[in-house]
Design a protein that fits this description.
The structure is a single chain. With about 900 residues, the chain is an alpha+beta fold. The chain contains 31 helices and 28 strands. It is globular, with a radius of gyration of 29 Å. The site of S-adenosylmethionine (SAM) has 19 residues, from helix 9. Its main location: nucleus.
Length: about 900
Amino acid sequence: MGGGRKRGRTQRRHFKQGRENVWKHNPQRPPAAGGEGAEGGAAEGREGNPSWQPFATENPAFEDYYKAQQIIPEGEWDDFMNMLRKPLPATFRINASCQFYQDICSQLENDFRKSLETEVSDEHEEDAIRPLPWYPGNLAWHLNFSRMQLRRNQALEGFHEFLKRENEVGNITRQEAVSMVPPLFLNVQPDHHILDMCAAPGSKTFQLLEMIHQSTKPGMLPNALVVANDVDVQRCNLLIHQTKRMCTANLIVTNHEAQNFPGCNLAKFSSETCTDESKLQRLEFDRVLCDVPCSGDGTVRKAPDMWRKWNAGMGNGLHRLQVEIAMRGIGLLKVGGRIVYSTCSMNPVENEAVVAEILRRCGDSVELLDVSNELPELVRRPGLSTWKVRDRGSWFGTHEDVPRYRKNVISPSMFPSGKGTMDSHVAIGSVEINTDVIDADMKDSTNMVEGEQETKTASDDVNNGGDPNTEETSKLESNEVPNDSDKKSNSASIRTEHSNFPLHRCMRIVPHDQNSGAFFIAVLQKISPINENQEAELIKGEHNISKDRAEKLEKGLGSDKVPHKENTVQQQGVDDGNVMDEQQNGDVDNETSNGKSSEEAKVIVNEAENDQAGPRDRRRKPQNQGRWRGVDPVIFFKDEATIRSIVSFYGIKDTFPLEGHLVTRNPDAGHVKRIYYVSKSVQEVLELNVKVGERLKITSLGLKIFERQSSKDGSPCTFRLSSEGLPLLLPYITKQILYASAIDFQHLLQYRTIKFPDFVDAKFGEEASALLPGCCVVVLWEGHQNIDSIAMDPSAIAIVCWKGKTNLCVMVSPLDGKELLERICLRYGLKIPKADDVKPSMKIDGSDEQPDLSTEAVDPEAVPESKASDMEIADAKEVE
Ligand SMILES: C[S@@+](CC[C@H](N)C(=O)[O-])C[C@H]1O[C@@H](n2cnc3c(N)ncnc32)[C@H](O)[C@@H]1O
């Protein structure tokens, strides 16, 4: 029963951009002859529209680069390339915390698995759909159809509809198989604080939420917290849309540069600052997911445009940012905690080189874990220990060989030994993607390949096997010292280094091992605090803060506790206290001084409540609205009178904790429109955030639980229940609640408004008419022994309704209603009504008489926004 929203323009734009990446119209080229060829996805494009030309699934520079890097043994090269040219099979995951989890599992096993058998076209595959063997609990499924086949094949239409609908309501998530791997290696527990540093569009965030909610009983909240961050405001909105499908009060969405993610630390147990030591003093995490921005060439099966775009500079240009993000993640990680670094790139400069640099910077404080005994059924290959760097058409095996004028661009950390790292810090000061590198290589990728064919590659076994621990750092693989012209062209003749870090513990997932995309994953554990010298290094490198602070740390003067008042916003009624000056003050400066912040801060958040305020209201808003311009502040909702009226109207048991758990985004208490529920873990972070001067830029949080409802019916309560929050509140509601038979429940969903005498069960109609006017809950009792315990049953089905003068009206979005209708019909063996029979305002006797809307007087503003029902957002969400 996740919530839903109308798709915004932003989401449509993202979707269109996504589509751009699939097929392009090429008016210059005549339609290709023939039917479906071996080009897989490329050939599929011809089925529907012959004027749509497939991308050429080749790029000599790509092959040249990865052959030289020996990411795949020579004997497997053809298999590897052939697989890259095939379309990616679709995959999805069942949300084990959704109430229809069992129903969906059985539908897949007993219905679709058999009915789709005949549609399998791949001679190597027996099953039409099958669970991914490595995903725990058979929750993830692989289809032997590509996304294109799903869209085009008539026989698959029903199944495709099923996938779209279940994805939209949050019962399943369509996600690339390899993208599901990183969260599994986090070993998440229900009480963990987790940071997802680069989270949009949110498939892994959703997976993390599934993990923390999976074993939670109805009405209970896990103690966990997920902070999902992304620098891109528009992608943040996709993330918000995605996670709205989950009933969770444990999520905070933030909008920061991950490498500058603010620290929220109060002076450590200072009695002046905080008397209650049980309160959260420091925002740090048990788990960090660092799924960094990358060149993305592992997604080429899904995004064929990559063939055309790819160049070696893409990876080089991202390396530094990736290191900075990972280092910030380690800074925010608790001692003993795990961080997973991942990319969907195959490039060692973005993968092993980044991991090696982390290990180099952190010394004994961080360990690269051997996770070979975790998920044993997942086929993976060891990380590389040797690689080289390509820049402007030349190969370099060591930083020493890089021409002087390129030394600041091609940093030592890109090489296996990392030698010369100290020099690079001068250049690292501010983190930027070096477009110069990318541009240069764009030219290279088109100009240099033919003239510089590399005919020979070094031996295969160096990269993928061997025990790197036995190797010396910067051991040279070739004794030949090339002259300048050799160096430029021949990858085999250059000196290459070998890392002595155990990089074989990193995991490479390659497409031809299990018919997937490519992915890179490294699991690291923080063994001890990063020492002060390392921290100083880190700060110098990452945050560009004042030199004297870094020097102070280097000299071992410890943490600087001088508060930077100019960077903290004094909150009315909040004792800002003695805020520990962390590097985040530097971050805050960055955010506000680099010209980015004002743009960044223009967050258009779906939850933003200023939509309800007219010009007069806006003027009334207090000056101090929060730390971040354009983002509504998070305000604890403390209006006692309103809370009392809600509690009394719905008979909410006093075991349901409300105090400190209700927040709004509207500082004007008299005009609050939506109230959100937050878990204790979120509540604590919010309190801490206020104390440190609102360093977190929070774009979304919590679970919408109550919404303002004006009505002419004279309801004593001005707030109705939100469908999103109902599963959480249901076990605690004692008034305004009705229990319906399957047939009456079905009719309610089918006709949406039913007059009291028209219910099949007359007693139900009478009970409905006896309720107080206003919002109520209807629970399906069929299939349950004892009415009193239904609400505690995870499979209980309930909907929010409105009791008017003459009838009961459903307040569930049409899409949720349709989905629910089909689910109950399947569960209770009822006939699924045809689409034409599901008319929102038809009487059950079949006449088209409209319900008396004037008597209902439901505030149109309060009717739930309908969920998007077409394909656009479902596809957009599939983005890795
Ligand atoms: C590989 S995608 C993340 C995919 C996501 N983890 C998921 O599973 O849906 C990388 C994300 O990093 C974001 N990003 C790029 N630079 C960033 C930065 N400096 N800080 C935070 N996020 C960044 C991009 O906007 C993009 O959404």
